[in-house]
Amino acid sequence: MISFIPSDFKVLVQEETCIKCRRCVRECSFEALSFDQRVLADHSRCVACHRCVAICPTGAITVVKNPLAFRENANWNEELIKNVYRQARVGGKLLTGTGNDKPYPIYWDHLLIDAAQVTNPSIDPLREPMELRTYLGSKPARLDFYYDGTGGFKLTTVLEPQIKLETPIIFAGMSYGAVSLNVHKALAEAARRAGTLMNSGEGGLHDSLYPYGENIVVQVASGRFGINRAYLERAAAVEIKIGQGAKPGIGGHLPGEKVTEEISRTRMIPQGTDALSPAPHHDIYSIEDLRQLIYAIKEAVRYQKPVGVKISAVHNVAAIASGVVRAGADFITIDGFRGGTGATPTIIRDHVGIPIELALAAVDDRLRQEGIRHQASLIASGSIRSSADVLKAIALGADAVAIGTAALIALGCQMCQKCYTGRCAWGITTQRPDLVDRVDPEEGAERLYNLLRAWSLEIKEILGALGLNSIESLRGSRERLRAVGLTDTEMAILGVKPAGR
Amino acid sequence: MLRKPGFGAPREGEIRIPSGCAIAGIMNEDGKRISGEKIIQAISVMRERSNGLGGGFSAYGIYPEFKDYYAFHVMFDDEAGRHGTETFLQETTVVVKSEAIPIRKQPTVTDAPLLWRYFLEVPKSKLNGLSEEDYVMRLVMHVNDSIDGAFVFSSGKNMGVFKGVGYPEDIGRFFRLEEYEAYLWTAHGRFPTNTPGWWGGAHPFSLLGWSVVHNGEISSYGINKRYLEMFGYRCTLMTDTEVIVYLLDLLMRRHNLPLDIACLILAPPFWKDIDRMEENRREAITALRMIYGSAMLNGPFSIIVAHEKEMIGLTDRIMLRPLVIARKDATIYMASEEAAIREICPYPDRVWTPRGGVPVIARLKETTAVK
Questions:
Q1: Average pLDDT rounded to a whole number, residues B75-92
Q2: Residue A409: in which H helix or E strand, if any?
Q3: Could you say which of A121, A145, A474 has the minimum Cβ distance to residue B320?
Q4: For the residues of B194-218, what is the DSSP string, one character each?
Q5: Average of pLDDT values for A474-499?
Q6: pLDDT band at B11, cuts 50/70/90?
Q7: Which H or E run contains A165?
Q8: pLDDT at B7
Q9: pLDDT number for residue B48
Q10: d(CA B44, CA B167)
Q11: Is B345 a catalytic residue?
Q12: Residues 257-286, chain B: which have Cβ within 8 Å of A?
């Protein structure tokens, strides 16, 4: 029988312009290009990562969608047909990387931001301070002071540990294993420079990153990789990872090919073995078990650091979040269904979970109704693509947002979704030493810092336009958003009025 | 309850009506009382800042013979509203005295509702574990939310609010304020951006003994309101002024914070200044911003807040609305414009503009300050 799966893409090399330097052949990590008197392409291997396009000195290469036509079918689209071919051939789960790429509604794109006018002046960010400082951690409902009788006062309430961020954007958890060590180094350095945080992800923390501890949140995920005393002691905060938006309800998977010696040492597992994080934590089968783990970690860090929980956005996320807060979490990261990943079954990524916009609004509302909103900071993630998304998330109620995909794009990611192969031509989601070298930690840190700075400046610009000079006056203020093209129910869930009202 | 929505444009409370305005205040720190004539003169100088669609006054010390009773000023759309309210008050309080508020018809003040005042005593037997003030607050909220055609616009002891739709000086004459004597007067003239047509929408906004007059628009209203709702306050009027009063009630009465700290919450210093403070103060103010960030008032505002013992003038941190203060002997004057003060006090000892975000507090002599 013939097994024919049409290539997704075609690599087109313009012969007149090609100077036959063969850089493209060397740079392509998917072995799609070879050379025999001219550059030859095996189109079936091309993943549209654009590495060859980027490094060609004469711009002779372009990558196009394979124009081979299927009869138009709004139901059986090309991807679905090809997936059946693949599964008939291999008989396994199809894997993918990055976040959900399907055309579900994006609520960020239905929300518009207010501006101050006439009855209220906008504020000029070039002349006036614009404050983005944010503190993550559990807050008390009120404060007590000692008054010395001569007019001075001193705080007597003892506060839970807080983390100071100079901007409400932190880097999301991406494990060492899923991404390379150079990427981790770039994230840590950028976080330190920008006064914010990176997250180690579930792969442990390489010891070269220990000096950056004050800017690192370490994760305790279901595989418990890399967790020892030093890991907990060095970090600024600890996050128990219950789930992530790209794969709610299932565990993590780092293929054995990516478990090098360094990763083996950092994760504390044998080299070359698959690193499987199980689906649930096998010691957390109910909310009371979670409380036990939260307090075990708080004891281990002597209550000196915030301990939080990361959950995926699923149907009853509001009730879950309420339970997590009551279980003692100091912060909750909610990851929406568009969140990225290094490896997950495609079917889970594309069909499980709910949008972060709705989840965030529902959780913020529920926690306020129950009078416990102050007990934990909320961090929203799952496709924050621009400073406008950041601002809308904060207006819906988030204390801060976490960016994963955006950070990797800043490092050169072209969203080809092949992270799980370990062949990332840009050196980001790979452990092959020759590829890892393609990310320079210093330059990478510079780019990440630039991204944070650019978004922070844009946020300040919009704050000024809103007539505000501090981010806490926007946080949770749904009144500054209006919706376009949404149903009454969607607007009710978001707590946002329609534009025009 | 606000009149049921019917034909025509939405009313105050149904939509948000931003406005620009004039404010003024006079307080004698010795407690010496003066007639309303002076405050009317001061606010009339600032006529151009209003557009005739709202004016009002608050006065403290005006009911000395009834100073132990809650003085409810209530407006009614009709007799049915009055009847419903009086029945409710008789069931829940002891009504010591009730009478129509004396008025003098003015050609420019039309469509007045029925205006009544009641002096009420709260019987201990009715409290059921609530504090007296929480109980009174609930009475007010009940009338305003649930009794059709009735609105309590003042509910403090030995004080009262007088307001309506019209230029403030005309409202002042309408209520015959020159016949009252108070040690603390505030006044407000309104320039709303559409026609409210409702007397309850004018300023001052008042709850228990607090009253606020406000010039500006609070950009942080959306989160201030949601924060207050967590503590059971219902912001039915959709005005900025309402949230200011509720925030003060929350911070000072329920959280027991002194006035100076409440002002540090409403208009905190910038981080760049906090970072340079000495350790205790820096730690305390950082904590205030961390915990009470949702109570910060952002956006242009100048407000005059009055309470039995204090009159506070406060502007936003970058002073986007004007406020001028003056002192002569024991009297403090506050106004949106210096001309308003000079009209009634031509030679003050001192005139100044306060710093953005820093409160100016006039106090009755026996109270002490927290810095």
A1: 94
A2: helix A405-410
A3: A121
A4: S----GGGSSPEEETTEEEEEEE--
A5: 97
A6: low
A7: strand A163-165
A8: 46
A9: 86
A10: 8
A11: no
A12: 257-258, 261, 270-272, 280-281, 283-284
Instruction: Judge whether A436 lies within some domain.
Output: yes
Both A271 and A411 in a single domain? yes
The question of ipTM being above 0.90 is answered as no
Closest C-alpha among A393, A384, A396 to residue A452: A384
- The domain total for chain A is 2
What pLDDT, in 10s, does the model give residues A135-181?
Answer: 999 999 999 999 988 888 999 999 999 999 999 999 999 999 999 99
Asked if residue B204 has a cis previous peptide bond (ω within 30° of 0), the answer is yes
A110 falls within a domain: no
Instruction: Measure CB to CB from residue B217 to each of A119, A140, A154 and give the nearest one.
Output: A119
pLDDT tens digits for range B273-331: 999 999 999 999 999 999 999 999 998 899 999 999 999 999 999 888 999 999 999 99
The pLDDT of residue B371 is: 41
Name which of A145, A371, A374 is nearest B261 (Cβ-Cβ). Answer: A145
Q: For all residues of chain B together, what is the average pLDDT?
A: 90
Contact status, residue B341 vs residue B190, Cβ threshold 8 Å: no
- Could you tell me which of A381, A422, A334, A348 has the C-alpha nearest to residue A102? A348
- Hey, which residues does B329 pair with through a beta bridge? none
CA B61 distance to own-chain centroid:
15
What pLDDT is attached to residue A275? Answer: 86
Query: Hey, are the CB atoms on A472 and B296 less than 8 Å from each other?
Result: yes
Question: Domain range spanning residue A276?
Answer: 168-459+475-498
A210: domain CATH number is 3.20.20.70
Mean pLDDT over all residues of chain A?
95
- A133 touches B: beta carbon within 8 Å: yes
At B59 the three-state DSSP class reads strand
Measure the CA–CA gap between B157 and B111, rounded to whole angstroms.
Answer: 28
Inter-axis angle of helices B259-266 and B240-248, to 10 degrees? 140
Measure in Å the smallest separation between the Cα of A383 and chain B Cα atoms: 25
B273 contacts on A by Cβ (under 8 Å) = none
Q: What CATH number is associated with residue B172?
A: 3.60.20.10
In tens, the pLDDT along B331-354 reads 999 999 999 999 999 999 999 999
Is B339 in CB contact (< 8 Å) with chain A? no
Interface test with B, best of A126, A136, A153 (most B CBs within 10 A): A153
In a domain, B87, yes or no: no
Q: Which parts of A195-350 are beta strand (E)?
A: 198-199, 216-220, 237-241, 253-254, 275-276, 307-312, 331-335, 344-345
What is the per-residue pLDDT across A109-130, written as a single tens digit (0 to 9) for each? 999 999 998 888 899 999 999 9
Residue written as token pair 């941190």: B317
The answer to whether residue B146 is domain-embedded is no
* Run of H or E including B121: strand B114-121
Amino acid occupying residue A324 = V
Q: What is the pLDDT of residues B235-259, one digit of tens each?
A: 877 778 889 999 999 999 999 999 9
**What residues make up the domain containing B327?**
19-62+158-363
Distances (CA, A) of A355 to A267, A323, A381, B112: 31, 20, 10, 52
Q: Which of A92, A114, A131 is the last residue of a domain?
A: A92
Ranges A168-182, A265-279, A310-324: which has the least confidence: A265-279
Residue B326 lies in a domain: yes
- Partners of A368 on chain B (C-beta within 8 Å) are 226, 229-230
Lowest mean pLDDT among A24-33, A274-283, A388-397, B188-197: B188-197
Count of domains for chain B:
1
Look up residue B254 and give its DSSP letter: I
What are B7's two structure tokens?
């034909």
Q: What is the DSSP string of B268-317?
A: PPPHHHHTTS-HHHHHHHHHHHHHHGGG---SSEEEEEE-SSEEEEEE-T
The reply to whether A460 touches chain B by the CB within 8 Å rule is no
